[in-house]
Write a structure and sequence with these properties.
With 756 residues, the chain is of the alpha/beta class. Helix content is 62%, strand content 8%. Belongs to the PC-esterase family. CASD1 subfamily.
Length: 756
């Protein structure tokens, strides 16, 4: 309600998260690397004009461009800097007082005799206080001088970005005797004069000198760490320089995690068409609902006045047609997608950076584990990895992953490595579940494939359209989709080996193992042949699905990170079902899985293996090296968990209904978090209620979970309509879907062409 000018917020307000992380009010700051800074400032001339405090800011700014720069040169003189590789010039001009000399320099830029800088950062006052011993006459002269300079700055602001830096407070106890006259009271008087005069001047001009007042807030928190009571510590001036970089560069570079100063992106052609479709769906549903309601009222019987009896209605409930169900689903989906767009594409709601602390991650983990244990119930069946148990497993893993994302725990390597195991466990379940289905049922029909692909991809396809994001951006869905197709292809190609066939002849088991060995060989080859992998997915239209930022490297990295775990899941399913078939395990209620002796030994080995992996993951020092080992060793902790969870009969016979409920909507939770719980495509946090972080998390979480649950129901309803069991009808629907995606590719190509 205060407006969407996030630049104003960035320059004037914010708070510290911890000791060094600055959080602007309502938006997110990007931390620029030197390569990004060079790309933004290429062929630019920047001038810092002022005293020693501005000189400090100058050095922090050029260190973003070149971190090797040293603070050398004449402290009370001009200091030039040039980066020839990007043609960037940054100059510090020594003007410690707002006087005639400073006015003459600014005037030379306005008269056209000298090339205007693209960015001008100016500010001074402490020297005037010091030289004139804090006299009131000096303040009066300052007001006169800045009044004469203000119109010139406004004139410059029409073609350049002009910033006036307000004076930071001082730490009076640390000031030397020669600076004792520089008091915070005097500084406030000078700042008040500068703000009043500059704002008064800007009212009469369309251009505006931007007042850089946020430095004051930063200094109030950090000036105690100053070496002399006057100059800011290095971390604080680095923050100021990064704020300047964000103010100028965010609108040019458009970083995902830099929402400050970024304008709202324009609607694409595909987004406009989606908006029209959902609007028509809502109108269509309302019309059909009104027609059905009127028909229902007409059919409702009236009281028989002659005999004083009321006949029962001929129709108890109005019949819901397929069209009405379809429109109803799209109506709800349209409203939900509007909320998605408003949260993460419009500048309606605030966004904040993540900030990791151990308590922000581990306290919610303990809380949900206590809740999960509280909701313990008996399972309907006591088989290994029964439906309730796998739902529970997915549920608690998803909740841990959500807490990991919102707390920013990826910066803490031991947590990151354990979360990698949870993602691997999802893929393990993919291998286990789909292999078990095809092996037991022997159903390789098109209906089964289409049902799975629709349920996996429906939400992501809609989000790609509405949020203007590539398919690969939601990396987990492409991952499970491709692995499902690999599992299907492995088992469906000739010879089709299923349990029924293998029971008749044991040699078929060896045939299946041979298929799995071939699959493992292919995975191994592709994992060490990046070129072959990238060529495979670089052909159009596959490239449209798997490219991110113009290449398929991200897809290669995600696939390679968990390349063996699906195979491990398939192999585990094969061994488990073979043991089950030959009655080598006991799955009765309360019975241990094996004999007491074997169960105890396996349980001990599993606990040791689980703890060993955790110790190794916690001792990781290098993310790259640990990621290299992860694909081969993640299965150790997954198998250890399965055995610990299933060997004791009592543990196998109970499950947490709390976790299982979340497990049933785990895919929707994982995808929805990108835009309506987190913000800026997971880089930040959505702020619905500013100023109350805990209350904000409670409200946004409630809405987020409700939306995920609703989308799960919508997906299930639409799956029954879009993917019917009748093969001829299904074929027609598939042709319609193929036409839809062809149109999508056409419009996407048109968008890309217009952007270029």
């Amino acid at each position: 309600f205060k407006g969407d000018d996030t630049c104003e917020y960035l320059l004037s307000s914010g708070r510290f998260l911890g000791e060094k992380v600055w959080q602007p009010h309502s938006c997110m700051m990007h931390k620029y690397k030197n390569s990004e800074a060079k790309n933004c400032l290429i062929d630019k001339h920047i001038v810092f004009l002022g005293d020693s405090r501005i000189r400090q800011l100058f050095y922090s700014f050029i260190k973003i461009i070149n971190p090797q720069v040293r603070e050398e040169g004449n402290k009370h003189g001009n200091i030039p800097f040039e980066d020839k590789s990007a043609s960037i010039k940054v100059d510090f001009l020594w003007y410690p007082e707002v006087n005639g000399s400073m006015k003459q320099r600014i005037k030379s830029w306005t008269e056209g005799s000298v090339a205007k800088p693209h960015i001008i950062v100016a500010g001074a006052a402490t020297w005037s206080i010091k030289i004139h011993n804090g006299s009131n006459e000096a303040l009066t002269q300052y007001k006169i001088n800045i009044t004469s300079i203000a119109p010139l700055l406004e004139k410059l602001a029409k073609s350049s970005d002009v910033y006036w830096v307000l004076q930071d407070p001082v730490y009076e106890d640390m000031l030397s005797e020669s600076r004792k006259m520089i008091t915070n009271e005097k500084i406030d008087a000078y700042n008040e004069a500068a703000v009043r005069i500059l704002n008064s001047s800007s009212r009469n001009s369309k251009a505006k000198v931007k007042v850089f007042s946020v430095s004051k807030l930063i200094a109030q928190e950090t000036i105690m760490k100053s070496s002399d009571g006057l100059h800011l510590p290095e971390s604080s001036r680095d923050t100021n320089a990064m704020i300047l970089m964000n103010v100028y560069c965010n609108k040019i570079m458009k970083p995902i995690d830099g929402s400050c100063c970024q304008p709202q992106p324009p609607l694409t052609l595909i987004q406009k068409l989606a908006f029209c479709f959902f609007t028509l769906s809502i109108i269509g549903y309302l019309i059909i609902s009104l027609i059905h309601r009127n028909n229902y009222r007409k059919n409702k019987s009236c009281a028989d006045l002659e005999i004083g009896e009321e006949k029962k209605p001929a129709i108890n409930t109005p019949n819901v047609s397929t069209l009405e169900m379809l429109l109803h689903s799209f109506c709800k989906l349209g409203l939900i997608m509007t909320y998605f767009y408003l949260c993460d594409r419009a500048n309606l709601f605030m966004k904040e950076n993540k900030f990791y602390t151990h308590s922000s991650f581990f306290i919610p983990i303990v809380y949900i584990l206590v809740l999960g244990v509280f909701y313990t119930e008996n399972t309907k069946e006591t088989k290994v990895l029964n439906r309730e148990q796998t739902d529970e497993w997915k549920g608690w893993m998803q909740l841990v992953i959500l807490i990991y994302h919102i707390s920013g725990a990826s910066t803490f390597l031991p947590v990151y490595m354990h979360i990698r195991v949870l993602v691997a466990a999802y893929l393990f379940q993919t291998g286990y579940g789909h292999f078990s289905y095809f092996w037991i049922k022997g159903d390789f029909g098109v209906y089964r494939v289409c049902q799975v692909l629709f349920r996996l991809n429906f939400l992501v396809v809609v989000l790609c359209i509405v949020m203007d994001r590539p398919y690969q951006f939601y990396y987990f869905v492409p991952l499970v989709t491709v692995w499902f197709m690999i599992i299907y292809a492995t088992l469906a190609i000739w010879p089709q080996i299923v349990q029924k066939k293998a029971n008749g002849n044991c040699l078929w088991h060896f045939g299946l193992l041979l298929k799995l060995i071939c699959l493992l060989a292919c995975i191994y080859f592709l994992s060490y042949s990046q070129g072959a992998f990238e060529k495979m997915f670089s052909f159009w239209p596959l490239s449209k699905c798997f490219e991110l930022n113009g290449n398929v490297y991200e897809w290669w990295f995600r696939w390679k990170l968990d390349r063996y775990v699906v195979f491990h899941g398939m192999l585990f399913a094969f061994i488990y079902l073979a043991l089950q078939k030959h009655q080598m395990i006991s799955e009765g209620k309360g019975d241990p899985l094996f004999s007491n002796r074997v169960s105890n030994v396996l349980l001990f080995i599993s606990i040791v293996s689980f703890m060993t992996y955790s110790i190794w993951a916690s001792s990781c020092k290098n993310k790259t090296e640990c990621n290299e080992l992860h694909p081969s060793v993640s299965v150790v902790q997954i198998l250890a968990f399965i055995l610990i969870r299933n060997i004791p009969g009592y543990v196998r016979s109970v499950y947490s209904s709390f976790f299982a409920w979340f497990g049933k909507i785990s895919l929707e939770l994982f995808i929805c978090q990108y835009h309506i719980w987190l913000a800026a495509d997971t880089k930040g946090i959505l702020v619905l209620i500013p100023g109350y972080p805990m209350f904000n998390v409670i409200v946004s979480t409630f809405i987020f979970v409700c939306v995920a649950h609703e989308i799960s129901q919508i997906t299930n309803d639409l799956a029954q309509i879009v993917v019917p069991k009748d093969n001829s009808t299904l074929l027609k629907r598939l042709l319609c879907i193929a036409g839809f995606f062809s149109g999508l590719l056409l419009f996407s190509a048109m968008q890309d062409q217009s952007r270029h």
